[in-house]
Amino acid sequence: MKEIYLAGGCFWGTEHYFKMIEGVVATEVGYANGITKNPTYEEVCTDKTRFAETVRVTYNPEIVGLRFLLRMYFKAIDPVSVNQQGHDKGSQYRTGIYYVDERDLPIIEAAYQSEQEKYGKPLAVEKLPLQNFYTAEEYHQDYLDKNPDGYCHLPLSLFEFAKKAKPER
Fold this sequence. Notes:
Helix 3 packs parallel to helix 4 (105-116). Strands 7-6-1-3-2-8 form a six-stranded mixed beta sheet, covered by helices on one side. A two-stranded antiparallel ribbon has the order 4-5. By secondary structure, the protein is α+β, with helices and mostly antiparallel strands. The two termini are 13 Å apart. The chain is 28% helix and 24% strand.
């Protein structure tokens, strides 16, 4: 199994979206690349911890490749929006691709460059090594499974799209 950490605004919808993709074997929401230890949701929401709401995506590379996952990621975010996705505003809602395997960097760079060509201004998506990741509180895990009518910044049609997408390696 491999993993990649993706920040795409509110982690409730981002997690639910990636869970729908064939080859994704596990997801976990949490806080990545901040400056404190063991942050709480309330602390992250103060905008002082520098954490991003992030989803750890564990996937089977025999079924789905990182290139495909990143294409799906870019379909679920506004990559030029700074510290905001949908109605959610604050540095914790910034977008980012955080990697743990240096060998993934060329794939990340290629996906980033391909996306950049679609826009007339620089992408606001961070692409950095993962510095730290703290698992979010239990009530945030699988939030939309537990609360089907819960808040989500992503349109429901995107979840259907993810379910039907055919992975590439």
